Amino acid sequence: MNRTFLLGRRRLKQLTLPQHELLRMHTAVWAMTRGTARHEEWDDLADLLAVVDALARMAKVDPMLVAPLIQDAIDGLAVAYKVPSGQMRVPGPAAHALHGIVTLYDACLSRDGQETIRDAIRLASVANDAALHGVVVLQD
Fold first, then answer.
1. What is the distance between the alpha carbons of residues 117 and 89, in angstroms, rounded to a whole number?
2. CB 3.0–4.6 Å: which of 40, 81, 108, 139 could bond 2 by disulfide?
3. How many degrees, rounded to 5, is the angle at CA 121 between CA 115 and CA 124?
């Protein structure tokens, strides 16, 4: 699986400890489903997609399970990005996908620990930086 989640050609933010990210992710999904999300929540969710995709590439979650969730979430975030900050909303399928992605992130954090999440963040950052510079990162 080789994807780029740049959805705006930006660098991933510096993420804090994984357990602190979980509350931010739930809050971002809540805001996106209610049409009150800002660019900050959009950024948090775009970063989450990249990290969960990295977890799939690390075989920590099932890539066949993750791929459709990520695609639905990307489609929804693309729609939301066209709306002014503070009014962003994702359509129904994307809202369900984002809930599922946060649940997968939480399960992975609980099962595999913070170090695994940190490794996924590093992997996502490398892939993101490579894409920003036009470099193709080959994956299995």
1. 27
2. 139
3. 145
Burial environment of residue 30 by CB neighbours within 10 A (0 to 12, 13 to 18, 19 or more)? middle
Give the number of other Cβ atoms within 10 Å of residue 89's Cβ.
17
Position 126 scores a pLDDT of 83
| CB-CB neighbours of 97 under 10 Å | 24
CA dihedral 85→45→49→100, nearest 10 degrees, is -120
**pLDDT one-digit tens code per residue, 60-70:** 999 999 999 99
Of 65, 66, 88, 67, whose CA–CA distance to 77 is shortest?
88
What mean pLDDT do residues 6-24 have? 59
